[in-house]
TrEMBL record:
<keyword id="KW-0378">Hydrolase</keyword>
<dbReference type="GO" id="GO:0004065">
    <property type="term" value="F:arylsulfatase activity"/>
</dbReference>
<feature type="domain" description="Sulfatase N-terminal">
    <location>
        <begin position="1"/>
        <end position="312"/>
    </location>
</feature>
<dbReference type="InterPro" id="IPR000917">
    <property type="entry name" value="Sulfatase_N"/>
</dbReference>
<feature type="region of interest" description="Disordered">
    <location>
        <begin position="427"/>
        <end position="448"/>
    </location>
</feature>
<comment type="similarity">
    <text>Belongs to the sulfatase family.</text>
</comment>
<dbReference type="InterPro" id="IPR050738">
    <property type="entry name" value="Sulfatase"/>
</dbReference>
<dbReference type="Pfam" id="PF14707">
    <property type="entry name" value="Sulfatase_C"/>
</dbReference>
<dbReference type="Pfam" id="PF00884">
    <property type="entry name" value="Sulfatase"/>
</dbReference>
<protein>
    <submittedName>
        <fullName>Arylsulfatase</fullName>
    </submittedName>
</protein>
<dbReference type="InterPro" id="IPR017850">
    <property type="entry name" value="Alkaline_phosphatase_core_sf"/>
</dbReference>
């Protein structure tokens, strides 16, 4: 999902609407409570998921724009390319956002077929109220939003009504792909464009939640998951398919009633606090994952690639990756902790925090904050200043998941240990906050 928060599913505490299909998936698999997106922003998060690397290792930062000249490097190995070693059919239906020029599109990076948007659904010349942008308005600079099929334009997305069709379209394409490839191994990547703003819902769910448009949309997303699970079962694939459900980052909170919930975690999208990077994750593999289990161990989207490599018997990429194999957790060994540390990078290459187990050391930095700001409503943004100074602080996330109580003075020995971890990160990947160049970073692809 795109910008779906930790508190947006009923099995994670959402109120006044339900997500029964996703809840059922959780009851039949593992629900992770300490699962982190690699970075709290679109392009960086997505390249990390597909390559098993921190995004700054592969030269991608932030959200690539319609004028960006860079994208995913051809030298990086995606999950799709890795699985082609074993003859997997590969398809993606939804948002890509790793470069819109042909050399960066999915078919050049291991996917057999693609239908979707090349970047975020708000990068278009239309205001949040659905009116065309005028020359004096920010969105006027964007080109017409294109729906891409494989490498070419399929159609133009011009209105909110056009956007309302996307969730259903992606779902139908995914169902068709499953049916077509049911007799061979396949990898299906379904990155929905929503609930990223602007949100739009098909007629079959509009007004059905009695909780507003965002909850209507969550019901439609839940329907989409239900369609995928139903198709797997109908085609005899239910017991031989690992299904992973997660989000690219936390909610864009200044959009108010068109944004999700961080579930009580601090801040949201675009920050290195838990509300920005801790996301729902459910993994279900009938007969392998224990049913109805909660896993509190630290894990991340960068761990998906090496886990799939282990399960499928494929070779890992030749270049260094950052993910670790968490298949032991999927098999029910919940006392194990494959991931010990995590680096919270943001902006171009700023190491804003490091984590060791439940300890998190936040470094002094300036960044986005939603705190004490009045959110917008009905698709319009409230204020979210980007230059708020965050002081250095130590948090014990076991006792304080909302990151409210700085315990630096109590645990100097923990700080010393976390500082060593930070130094290792800076040497390896660099750090703009301390003007360090990393030894093992790679360039993104550039337009030829």
């Amino acid at each position: 999902m795109d910008d779906m928060g930790y508190g947006d599913l009923s099995c994670y505490g959402a109120v006044n609407y339900r997500t029964p299909n996703i809840d059922k998936m959780a009851s039949e698999g593992i629900r992770f409570t300490n699962f982190l997106a690699a970075q709290a922003v679109c392009s960086a998060s997505r390249v990390a998921l597909l390559t098993g690397c921190y995004p700054n290792r592969v030269g991608i930062s932030g959200a690539l724009m319609t004028y960006s000249k860079n994208g995913i490097n051809a030298n990086e190995t995606t999950i799709a390319e890795m699985l082609k070693q074993k003859g997997y059919a590969t398809g993606i239906f939804g948002k890509w956002h790793l470069g819109y020029q042909k050399q960066f599109l999915p078919l050049q990076h291991g996917f057999d077929e693609y239908v979707g948007l090349p970047y975020s659904n708000d990068m278009w010349p239309v205001n949040f109220d659905g009116t065309p942008a005028q020359p004096n308005q920010n969105k006027f600079v964007y080109p017409v939003l294109l729906l891409i099929q494989n490498n070419d334009k399929k159609e133009e997305i011009k209105t909110l009504d056009d956007q309302a069709k996307l969730t259903t379209l992606y779902t139908e394409k995914a169902v068709e792909f499953i049916r077509k490839n049911k007799k061979s191994p396949f990898f299906l990547y379904l990155p929905h464009s929503m609930p990223h703003v602007p949100i739009a819902v098909s007629d079959k769910f509009k007004g059905k939640s009695q909780q507003g448009l965002y909850a209507d949309l969550m019901m439609e997303i839940d329907w989409s998951v239900g369609e995928i699970m139903k198709t797997l079962k109908e085609n005899g694939l239910d017991k031989n398919t690992l299904v992973i459900f997660t989000s690219d980052n936390g909610p864009w909170l200044n959009f108010g009633n068109h944004a999700g919930s961080s579930g009580g975690l601090r801040e949201g999208k675009g920050t290195s606090f838990e509300g920005g990077q801790r996301v729902p994750c459910i993994m279900r593999w009938k007969g392998i994952t224990p049913e109805g289990v909660v896993c509190n161990q630290l894990a991340s989207t960068i761990d998906i690639l090496p886990t799939i490599a282990r399960i499928s018997g494929t070779k890992l990429p030749n270049q260094k990756i950052d993910g670790v194999d968490i298949s032991s957790l999927l098999e029910g060994y919940l006392g194990e902790s494959p991931r010990k540390i995590f680096y919270y990078y943001y902006r171009k290459n700023s190491l804003e925090a490091v984590r060791m187990g439940n300890w998190k050391l936040v470094f002094e930095h300036k960044g986005r904050s939603y705190m004490n700001q009045l959110p917008g409503n009905d698709g319009f943004a409230g204020n979210a200043p980007e230059d708020v100074l965050t002081p250095m602080a130590l948090y014990d996330l076991r006792r304080d998941p909302s990151e409210q109580y700085d315990v630096q003075k109590l645990y100097p020995e923990i700080i010393a240990e976390l500082q060593k971890i930070a130094e290792e990160a800076r040497e390896d990947l660099g750090d703009d906050l301390t003007n360090r160049k990393g030894k093992n970073v790679r360039a993104s692809g550039l337009v030829e």
